[in-house]
């Protein structure tokens, strides 16, 4: 569908996503199925400025595009039935695929998966949180470090049948302070690949051009400066970072 239609076409709501913490709806713009999150439906948070989550979601999409990895579905700001908000193209994931899951510790897969943490279930059995070991998910982990994602839950990762892994729900991103909370810690300390380093370079360079100009309409100057600093630190380290600070390194709930 042409971009003009997505911006100017009538947005009709067809349902509500009741599991979301903020007001979230499913709708249509012509033949396109979309998710719509009005700014008016955002709940206040103690650590993020009020009324900024929609802008952060769009900023995450722009950074994803700068990486060139298609981590985030097409996302934009526009008016809707409940006022201005974030609109994102709906994605049909494969329900039989899970990039992140809990498994019995005794049945931990030997290959293809990375352990993150261990715990006990409601029956006091040991379980392990694991995620798949794929290039697509590695790229999402790099993306999360750069955008300072404070809420990468397992269910915020969509597994597509063609092998892509798409991330959604990026309202809690781009904070000036360290906020990284994610279930994707399996590569902790591993060297970044040449492809991953090149992606970081594209974002860093973009901040001096079109990406930086577009982000200026969505984020504060301090948040953009912090983004540039995270790119520089990650590029210099050349490896996946470890958790830091006193805050939890994983979101809760995990899914």
Structure description:
The protein is of the alpha+beta class and 255 residues long. It folds into 2 domains: 3-95 and 134-237, Transferase(Phosphotransferase), domain 1, CATH 1.10.510; 100-131, no CATH class. Helix content is 27%, strand content 21%. α4 (194-206) packs antiparallel against α6.
Primary descriptors:
single chain, alpha+beta, Transferase(Phosphotransferase), domain 1, 6 helices
Largest sheet: 5 strands, antiparallel
Helix amount: 25-40%
Q: Could you name the CATH class of the largest domain?
A: Mainly Alpha
Count of discrete structural domains: 2
Indicate the CATH topology of the largest domain: Transferase(Phosphotransferase), domain 1
Count of β-strands: 10
């Amino acid at each position: 569908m042409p971009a003009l239609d997505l911006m100017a076409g009538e947005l009709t709501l067809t349902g509500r996503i009741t599991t979301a913490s903020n007001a979230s709806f499913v709708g249509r713009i012509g033949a396109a199925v979309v998710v719509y999150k009005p700014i008016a439906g955002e709940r206040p948070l103690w650590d993020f400025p009020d009324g900024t989550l929609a802008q952060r979601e769009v900023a995450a999409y722009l950074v994803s595009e700068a990486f060139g990895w298609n981590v985030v579905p097409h996302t934009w700001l526009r008016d809707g039935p409940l006022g201005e908000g974030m609109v994102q193209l709906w994605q049909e994931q494969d329900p039989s695929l899970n990039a992140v899951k809990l498994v019995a510790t005794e049945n931990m897969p030997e290959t293809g998966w990375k352990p993150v943490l261990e715990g006990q279930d409601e029956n006091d059995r040991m379980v392990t949180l694991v995620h798949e070991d794929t290039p697509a998910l590695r790229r999402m982990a790099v993306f999360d470090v750069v955008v300072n994602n404070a809420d990468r839950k397992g269910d915020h990762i969509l597994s597509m049948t063609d092998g892509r892994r798409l991330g959604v729900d990026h309202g809690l991103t781009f904070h000036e302070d360290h906020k990284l909370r994610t279930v994707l810690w399996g590569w902790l300390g591993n060297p970044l690949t040449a492809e991953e380093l090149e992606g970081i370079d594209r974002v860093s360079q973009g901040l001096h051009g079109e990406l930086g100009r577009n982000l200026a309409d969505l984020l504060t100057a301090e948040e953009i400066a912090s983004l540039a600093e995270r790119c520089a630190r990650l590029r210099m380290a050349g490896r996946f970072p470890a958790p830091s600070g006193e805050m939890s390194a994983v979101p809760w709930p995990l899914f």
